[in-house]
């Protein structure tokens, strides 16, 4: 609609029909909603910007680990080259590790580009092979920090899932387990990973002996931007995204509890139905 001064405005029109003096009459009312539409448009624009910023933060968070692995591999190659002790098999292993991490970085971008697509396909896999991929990424850091990893798998049950997203979930949980030992004097730091079947689900239980989680952190750790690591060391998005992936994309459950001497994170994924 245009006004007398030729301005275009958006209007909301409501029409009602009534009988008056034996005749059917139509009454129309209009309301100028130009300003409301503008506010709604700006709100959606700001939401998109916020989502974009959030996704960039998540990608940065997921890139930290592979970049750290690449940096460590290159550093080792420099040292061995400097002392003239570099052997061909060591060089080949380092190149393979760097290549795997680069593929992981590239896959992370692809994953998050299609993260909210409802029609993305699932793959048939099992938790054992997915966990091996995760340990290939983060295992070196555990070794360098003297944290023992004990993987016990009692299930080869197949699941329909987004493999790369589950890799991100387990990475986030294991990064938190690793960081739980920071600043603590634990004689024999250890993380145990148990994979087993339960009714209609495959369960992955990740336990540490780092002393447990405080009630405040337990209540808030799955909320967005909640972190105990400070702005420079954490985004507060790792466990939030992990929970979203498990609940919305895998139709499973992710929860945590304190156990004797530490904490346990439990992931339940529905078994594949043939």
From TrEMBL:
<keyword id="KW-0902">Two-component regulatory system</keyword>
<dbReference type="InterPro" id="IPR036890">
    <property type="entry name" value="HATPase_C_sf"/>
</dbReference>
<protein>
    <recommendedName>
        <fullName>histidine kinase</fullName>
        <ecNumber>2.7.13.3</ecNumber>
    </recommendedName>
</protein>
<dbReference type="GO" id="GO:0000155">
    <property type="term" value="F:phosphorelay sensor kinase activity"/>
</dbReference>
<keyword id="KW-0597">Phosphoprotein</keyword>
<dbReference type="InterPro" id="IPR003594">
    <property type="entry name" value="HATPase_dom"/>
</dbReference>
<dbReference type="Pfam" id="PF02518">
    <property type="entry name" value="HATPase_c"/>
</dbReference>
<keyword id="KW-0067">ATP-binding</keyword>
<dbReference type="InterPro" id="IPR004358">
    <property type="entry name" value="Sig_transdc_His_kin-like_C"/>
</dbReference>
<feature type="domain" description="Histidine kinase">
    <location>
        <begin position="58"/>
        <end position="273"/>
    </location>
</feature>
<keyword id="KW-0808">Transferase</keyword>
<dbReference type="GO" id="GO:0005524">
    <property type="term" value="F:ATP binding"/>
</dbReference>
<keyword id="KW-0547">Nucleotide-binding</keyword>
<dbReference type="InterPro" id="IPR036097">
    <property type="entry name" value="HisK_dim/P_sf"/>
</dbReference>
<dbReference type="InterPro" id="IPR005467">
    <property type="entry name" value="His_kinase_dom"/>
</dbReference>
<dbReference type="InterPro" id="IPR003661">
    <property type="entry name" value="HisK_dim/P_dom"/>
</dbReference>
<keyword id="KW-0418">Kinase</keyword>
């Amino acid at each position: 609609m245009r006004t007398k001064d030729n301005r275009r405005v958006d209007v909301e029109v409501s029409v009602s029909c009534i009988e008056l003096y034996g005749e059917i009459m139509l009454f129309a009312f209009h309301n100028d909603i130009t300003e409301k539409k503008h506010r709604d448009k700006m709100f959606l624009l700001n939401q998109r910007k916020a989502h974009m910023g959030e996704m960039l933060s998540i990608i940065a968070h997921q890139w930290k680990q592979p970049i750290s692995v690449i940096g460590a591999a290159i550093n080792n190659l420099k040292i061995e080259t400097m002392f003239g002790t570099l052997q061909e098999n060591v060089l080949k292993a380092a190149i393979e590790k760097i290549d795997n991490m680069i593929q992981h970085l590239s896959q992370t971008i692809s994953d998050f580009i299609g993260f909210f697509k409802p029609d993305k396909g699932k793959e048939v896999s099992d938790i054992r092979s997915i966990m091996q991929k995760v340990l290939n990424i983060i295992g070196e850091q555990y070794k360098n920090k003297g944290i023992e990893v004990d993987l016990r798998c009692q299930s080869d049950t197949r699941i329909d899932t987004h493999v790369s997203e589950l890799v991100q979930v387990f990475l986030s949980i294991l990064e938190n387990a690793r960081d739980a030992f920071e600043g603590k004097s634990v004689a024999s730091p250890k993380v145990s990973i148990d994979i087993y079947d339960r009714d209609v689900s495959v369960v992955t239980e990740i336990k540490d002996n780092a002393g447990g989680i405080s009630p405040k952190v337990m209540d808030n750790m799955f909320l967005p931007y909640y972190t105990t690591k400070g702005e420079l060391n954490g985004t507060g998005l790792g466990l939030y995204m992990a929970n979203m992936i498990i609940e919305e994309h895998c139709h499973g459950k992710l929860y945590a509890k304190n156990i004797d001497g530490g904490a346990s994170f439990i992931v339940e994924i529905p078994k594949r139905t043939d």
